[in-house]
Amino acid sequence: MSREPNAQLIAVMDEAKVSNKGLAKRMTDEAAQRGMDLGTTHVAVKRWREGSGIRPQTAALMADVLSAKLGRRITPGNLGFFDRSKSTAPEPVGYPSTVPDVLSILDGLSREHADAPVSDQLAVADADLDSTVLTWMIARPDGIQADRPAHQRVGMRDVRAIREAAGLFMQLDFKYGGGHGHKALRHYFREDVLPLLNASYSEKVGTSLFGAAAEISQLLAWTAYDVGNHRLAHRYLTSTLRLSQVIDDRMFGARILGNLSHQANYLGYHNQAIQLARAAVEGAKGRATPRALSNYSAMEARALSNAGDGIAAARAMKEAERHFERADTAEDPTWLAYFDEAELMGELCHCFRDLKMRREAVGQAQRAVDSTDPKYARTLGFCRMVLAQSQLLNRELEAAVTTASLAVDGGDSLQSTRFQRYVSDFQAEVSIHATNPTVAAFNDQVRDALARLDEDDE
């Protein structure tokens, strides 16, 4: 977690002629007017200037305050957050128009290293994203070209092998983070999965085969996302969305829109995240199981919560819970098995935290921690960090640091770049208590854990 000074934030603050204390006061005052208890101090501003992480909602509030001071629109990207300062142009979505196009793109993506040096920012033009979503919503399915002449014949045994491989790699991802299995997974996808899509098969086998390939492609997107390669993750996701169109799998396609919403929300593009989640809900109506609809609504709730829209977020959260109450009334695909009650609670506890609902955030996050199976190590780490942040909101400093320490003790979760950001965000939030022995010990613990992680990588 080495940091460089945030030159963009420093420059904008200099232009606005506002000090660390001045900016902190403006932010807390504005938050109070919005019914939020921010608690920002000049120490937190100092850490942000030094390159510390910041939560998207806090960055958006800071941008609004500086916009008012300067009399022009300032965005979190203008302030150097989420590394958008390195962005030179919006990333073209490039939704493939034909099946050969998408297979060619996926072959190229599978040759890229997720951990290659790359800017971890991502900017996608609204118009490009809107075009992709609309194309998926109204497009006719390509259909399977059954029993075509080919040197190789594919059967259900091949499909079962791919699905079993997807399950094994997913277990590795949950336990060790995206970087652990990405290289092996992309090699398997390129050498053992993609060639089968051009082989000969029956319509039934071909439909299952494309579905299994989409599961692998989606997992490649998630593993790239988890190590911070957002451009690669986004291209995998849009290509996977196109794969779902081949076999008219609206429920899986909607899941990909939900994943795109998750990524946009993580990067601070809340309006895009909201629209993507709503497209998932609408695009799968009549085709998705209640459990899937619960997942899509949860993504919408998270985006709305980060955007600060408490009323709409509460509606989406209730919809997610209402759908989940009917989860056992339909048979779900195996790829949705992970979305159990603990997973839903984990999504919703993020919402309560972002809405600054102290008691609800602590209660929901504690239930999520208690209910999460330890085999989902990264998910448990996320939930514990949200619990820690929620306890901090509730002014329970000692409990918050103890909880965060348990999350870091998980060790394996630290291999996830996303988890590291949760930790650095928490460190920024407790920085005003830097002299507290418990906080100082926690910071030492994080440094030691990261050092051990670096040693493991050698």
Radius of gyration: 22 Å
Number of β-strand runs = 0
Beta fraction: under 5%
The mean pLDDT is 87
Structural class: mainly alpha
Q: Are there runs of 5+ residues with pLDDT below 50, and where?
A: 83-89
Oligomer: single chain
Spell the H/E element sequence.
HHHHHHHHHHHHHHHHHHHH
Helix segment tally = 20
Q: Note the overall shape.
A: globular
Number of domains: 3
For the largest beta-sheet, the strand count, sense and barrel status come to: none
Distance between the termini: 17 Å
Helix content: 55-70%
Describe the protein in words:
Helix 16 (358-371) packs antiparallel against helix 17 (377-393). The chain has 20 helices and no strands. It is mainly α and 458 residues long. The model is unreliable at 83-89 (pLDDT under 50). The two termini are 17 Å apart. It folds into 3 domains: 7-86; 88-248, no CATH class; 340-458, Alpha Horseshoe (Serine Threonine Protein Phosphatase 5, Tetratricopeptide repeat). It has helices at 7-16, 20-33, 42-49, 56-70, 99-109, 126-138, 156-176, 178-197, 203-226, 230-246, 250-266, 270-283, 290-306, 310-325, 341-354, 358-371, 377-393, 397-409, 417-429, 437-457.
What does the secondary structure layout of this molecule look like, with pairings?
Layout: H1 7-16, H2 20-33, H3 42-49, H4 56-70, H5 99-109, H6 126-138, H7 156-176, H8 178-197, H9 203-226, H10 230-246, H11 250-266, H12 270-283, H13 290-306, H14 310-325, H15 341-354, H16 358-371, H17 377-393, H18 397-409, H19 417-429, H20 437-457
Helix pairs in contact: 2-3, 2-4, 5-10, 6-12, 7-8, 7-9, 8-9, 9-10, 9-11, 10-11, 11-12, 11-13, 12-13, 13-14, 13-15, 14-15, 15-16, 15-17, 16-17, 17-18, 17-19, 18-20
